[in-house]
Write a structure and sequence with these properties.
By secondary structure, the chain is α+β, with helices and mostly antiparallel strands. Strands 1-3-5-6-7 form a 5-stranded mixed beta barrel. The model has no long low-confidence stretch (mean pLDDT 91).
Length: 197
């Protein structure tokens, strides 16, 4: 287990996913300086109750260790970074420093076994390909193995417009086939017409 900084957000990052962020709070600018200096990452965890800015939010206990893969100064003058999710982690003993940066003891969760997408869920590949055509998502330059059930289930889970509670539940699943089944169940409940030919 290691003590790592955590970045609470109102979104969920999955292993293999990419996320652009704008950094403006001093605590996170200092955190990134440490990350660059030590060639380390930080943990992105979804907020269970509260807000990204201000008082300490309540977070979930499963998040994703992320590494910085790109950065730039934005026209607004803010620091822009792109992170990529690496591995899921379990958080314990969350503490708050004087500058309000949260850190936690983190334990890596075993990576999922790569298994092929079952025939019953091959239609979800078409859905993901249609989502990937969105210009915003194209900018993430995702390299997706559509035959890998883990990758397919993770990309759908983070890119489809699900509630954060659903996304978190999907993140916490260890079985990619079960995650695909849950994704399909959520789509069914939403009544989404994703019948793409």
């Amino acid at each position: 287990m290691s003590q790592r900084p955590i970045f609470p957000l109102n979104m969920t990052l999955f292993p293999g996913g990419r996320l652009p962020l704008q950094i403006f709070e001093t605590r996170y600018i200092d955190m990134l300086k440490d990350c660059f200096r030590n060639n380390t990452g930080f943990v992105i965890v979804s907020i269970k109750d509260g807000h990204e800015v201000g008082l300490r939010p309540e977070t979930y206990t499963i998040g994703t260790y992320a590494e910085i893969i790109d950065w730039s100064t934005l026209p607004s003058g803010l620091l822009g970074i792109t992170v990529e999710g690496r591995e899921r982690v379990k958080l314990t003993e969350i503490t708050e420093a004087e500058d309000k940066l949260l850190t936690a003891q983190t334990e890596f969760i075993d990576a999922e076994v790569a298994v092929p997408v079952p025939a019953a869920y091959l239609h979800l590949v078409k859905i993901l390909k249609s989502i990937k055509d969105n210009p915003v998502i194209q900018n993430l330059n995702l390299n997706i193995d559509y035959q890998n059930a883990s990758e397919l289930s993770c990309r759908l889970s983070e890119l489809l417009p699900f509630d954060i509670e659903d996304k978190q539940a999907l993140l916490e699943l260890q079985d990619p086939i079960e995650r695909l089944a849950r994704v399909q169940a959520i789509l069914d409940v939403m009544g989404a017409s994703f019948n793409i030919e």
